[in-house]
Amino acid sequence: MLKKLLVSALALVFVQAQAAESLLARINAHGTVTVGTEGTYAPFTYHDESGKLTGYDVEVTRAVADKLGFKVDFKETAWDAMLAGLKAERFDLVANQVGLTTPERRATFDKSAEYSFSGAMAVSRADDTRIQALADVKGLKSAQTLSSNYGEMAKAAGAEIVPVDGLAQALILVQQKRADFTFNDSLALLDYLKKTPDSGLRVAWRA
User: Fold this and answer.
1) Torsion angles phi and psi, residue 43, rounded to 5
2) Which residue of 90, 153, 158, 175 is surrounded by the most CB atoms within 10 Å?
3) pLDDT tens-digit readout, 43-92
């Protein structure tokens, strides 16, 4: 399973029990597609300087909905409640850089055509050089959302999980030495490091 978590193909995700035709019929009836997203996960879903919700996943969703003639209603939700909300039909679909990397997710959810490919990365404090390879995380504290692919990856690699609500909190805990590192999407972490060169963090490992 660990190998499958290293590189993800990301897509819009919806409940598998909903055939594409029935999902489309429901959206057609309302004229609006309801989409779950974090809104705090740059560069995929975040708020720009004006406060507008934007990001790669957000704009892909808007473009698809516009092409189909639907309005979009984004529901900002913490990651650990995202897929449960989708299963409970609080959303029609989720756009949040989701990878269906576990058997349980693949049995429950379905996805659109893949539109983004990325890999896993670990970030630690710049003065902490203990992590040079994936095996080095065993026994270290990893700040992760409990239900994420990267939380599963950290557990599979033997790390101790420090629960967080999202990436922003994970990075803060690493900076504060309350966690040793965090796994996440390489595009998200590289975007953060580029925007915050004085963060005191470094790329410790990448797939």
Assistant:
1) -95, 20
2) 153
3) 999 999 999 999 999 999 999 889 888 999 999 999 889 889 988 889 98
Dihedral pair phi/psi, residue 131, rounded to 5°: -95, 110
SS3 86: helix
CATH fold, domain 2-116, is D-Maltodextrin-Binding Protein; domain 2 (3.40.190)
Question: pLDDT tens across 87-111, in order?
Answer: 888 998 899 888 776 777 778 887 7
**Span(s) in the chain for CATH 3.40.190.10:** 2-116, 119-206
Joined together, the tokens standing for residue 135 give 């095996």
Element (H, E) at 67: helix 56-68
**Nearest one of 12, 8, 165, 170 to 96, comparing CA atoms:** 12
Cis, peptide link before residue 103, omega less than 30° from 0: no
Domain 119-206 has CATH 3.40.190.10: yes
CA separation for the pair 37, 59 (Å, rounded) = 12
Nearest residue to 82 via CA among 160, 145, 168: 145
